[in-house]
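Subject: Protein record for review, amino acid sequence with backbone structure tokens
Category: Structural biology, sequence-to-fold work with a learned token vocabulary.
Format: Residues in single-letter code; tokens as whole numbers, each standing for a residue.
Body of memo: The sequence and its backbone structure tokens, given next.
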Amino acid sequence: MQFDVIIVGAGPAGIFSALELSRNTNLKILMLDKGPDLDKRKCPASRGLDCINCEPCTLLSGWGGAGAFSDGKLTLSTSVGGWLGEYLSQEKLTKLIDYVDSIYVAFGGSKTLHGTDMDEIERIERKASLAGLRLVKQRIRHLGTENCMDVLMRIRKELNSSVEIRVRTEVKSLLVEGGRVNGVKTTDGEVIPGKYVIVAPGRSGAEWLKSEAQTLGLKTLNNPVDVGVRVEVLASVMEELTDILYEPKFIYYSRAFDDQVRTFCVNPYGEVITESYEGVISVNGQSYAERKTENTNFAILVSTSFTKPFREPIAYGEYLARLTNLLSGGVIIQRLGDLLSGRRSTEERIKRSIVQPTLKAATPGDLSFVLPYRYLTDIREMLEALDKVAPGIYSRHTLLYGTEVKFYSSRLELNEHLETKIRNLFTIGDGAGVTRGLVQASASGVIVAKEIMRREGVKVE
């Protein structure tokens, strides 16, 4: 069967492409994903239990993508969550982000916006600047992990009548002839013809996309790799910041190495979880809209952009995560006080901590056996600076989990429509290396959908 549009990957990027096209055209659309359907996705790690290494990882793969188990933070900023600003003007990107946000709200997203009290934000900004931190101003809408699923279910219900959706169907290769894409081939050997192919593989499909790009002779650009730890403190320590900002995002440049260090994915009253990437277990966090813990967690990440001759930033991040897994069987947990004293944490020392871990499966140990001295120095400096904004963060009771690695995919060389050098082949979302968050991933899907509509003679605003 010939399809007009084949979408590889059913995460936020692919979903928003399908939604935009199905609402505005009569094109025959096929969505493919290697993971299970939304109601079949069950992940022990998302509930704080041991990762059982599902293949493919149900936390990252399946209808809804990695966003299905995220805590659903919609970051409404042009400077956070990806690189779409390199393809669109700030004005167009702002309108697109607002449009995407309105769709999430229409499908049941929270109407509450955080980060709008400018007087309080400016007060925090002044305090942060004195500590050498730059506050990134952003509006945030928080769906909550449990509500994320509900929103996706409603979108799935709308698409059911207009889009053919096949789950547990893995694409092996992209079919190209004469510089133009003409379909895909699955791992089962099925050849599916298509006029347009939108590749939205998510983080779990990033390596596959990189391999396909090399096979097709497409040029790729390396994004930075972010490596660090997940920090867990009492919620009261960060309450002032999270009440106003929800997700306080700070950027810092270390004194010792001048590396960029940043906070990422703050989960007020949340819990620490694990995730699996290509068989490697790393750490993450989530928070629910209704169910709350006594703790808040967030990542501190050090960004590294490697230069020639090294071209494998993802492999480097994987190596550090695998080393952590080798030493601990999964994730290492260590009290900050133990790290500063040069000793490993033990179960007894963790039990004596004021902050009790929400990830019970983490193994007490010593992060200095895993993370390079440079990264640990950057992280320690960042914690000291944050303590001046939120006293109590640089406490010996603060818990550090490792290793957290963000595998930002290699980015293909794309035009302003997110199209490759191969005609009608588009790549979008986190797996294509152009975004790193729900909103910009969703927005990238809309960009491509609108371009396909133009080529099909549909009037686009």
The first strand starts at residue 3 and ends at 8. The domain at 3-116+139-221+411-455 is CATH 3.50.50.60 (FAD/NAD(P)-binding domain). The chain has two domains: 3-116+139-221+411-455, 225-406.
